[in-house]
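>> received
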Amino acid sequence: MRQLTEQMQRRRDLIGIGLVNLATLTWATNMVLGRWLRDDIGPLTLAAARFSIAALLFAALLQRRPREERRLGQARWLLLGMALSGVAIFTPTLYFGLRFTTAVNATLINGFGPLITGLLAAVLIREPMSRRQFTGAIVGLIGVISLISGGSLIFWQAVRGNVGDLISLGAVALWSIYSILAHQVMRRRSALSATALSVFLGLPLLVLAAAWEIQTFPVSVHPQLVLAVLYIGIAPAVIGFLSWNAGVRRLGSSGAMVFYNMLPLYGALLGRLFLGESIGPAHLVGGALIIGGGLWAALGRG
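>> returned
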């Protein structure tokens, strides 16, 4: 009986690992497209557009769910917290931070995400961070440093503190809070319900922000933009968020965040595939550390 329970838990963990990796992969494609579209559409407008598409798809999917899944219920404040932290505020904060700091600094700060999540989860909901999760987070952080430095000491010359670093750190904390709240909400409802309702609640704020931004940053509409926005609304916004929350439900907030460091790894691989960017030995070592640290953390109980 115990062996059967352990096998079921291992299977649950493996499914969770696959789901959070699918999420980070879709978000990596979002970063590539976001860079490609940066001169055609503002970040707030792009965020509002992708979550508007996502809201329509989520509304259609929720029609087939029980009525309780379509209501806020007693989780309304937790869902509002998810909407503010992960939908309405996270993306603008991330982009705002990048106006004042380098991509190197921002990526490095994101590498602290698993540790920040573990600390916040322990304080807010008393979800302890296991020794394996802590070790995996440290190994993953070392992998992120190796990945973005490319093995060059020049990397450290680019790491200088500024206000953008604090803003980027705030963005990481927001995503950690979103994951923690999602884990709490999904104790009593499905990942689809939690994701959809948080998107519905956060979308009006994004639309208002986009209406302000578009006055100074008009959208340059062309067929490629339309196709890209449709993809971003379906893959990163629907599949990505839904997969992430389903993974959080299985792994816990701290366990899922260990794999958040896969984002820069997938970004490097996509950059190589679509942009012809080079990948050296340091990138391979960094990728191995990120993957190994995540698996070590997620597939252990100590």
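>> The radius of gyration is 19 Å.
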